[in-house]
Amino acid sequence: MSTARRAVLVLVLAVSTVLAGGLAAEASFSESVGGSTSITTNAITAPTGVTAVKNSCSNARWIDVTISWQPSPSARINGYAVTAYRSDGQVTMVGTTGTGSTALRTTVDKLTGASTVFTVTTTTSYGWTAESLSSASITC
Known about the structure:
Layout: H1 3-22, E1 48-56, E2 62-70, E3 77-86, E4 91-97, E5 103-109, E6 116-124, E7 129-131
Antiparallel strand pairs: 1-2, 2-5, 3-4, 3-6, 6-7
Keywords: Signal
InterPro entries: FN3_sf, Ig-like_fold
Protein name: Fibronectin type-III domain-containing protein
């Protein structure tokens, strides 16, 4: 290749590079879809009307008690957990039931001079819970 041809080729390449660099590619996309999206969640509600009835105080240590409640109307629950709160600060889960139960009979440790209240918690398989208001207190 001659020097003149080489110079022309270099000049053509340089001009085409400059011209191509000034023309940037551009693209844009736009789409609009009408409609609405809504997401709903279920609220887990606690049982209501929790009562504790003392069946007996068999000796100086134990209280036999029946806890009852109105069931939660929430869907997809798997049961109830009953918790005892003693006035000295001790908290004990005393039992669990399935969805068809609205009462639990249990024995709790009594402390002289202490009273106990109970709550019932709605439980689900996915971890959501809702605890009721407490029952009236019981003592021996």
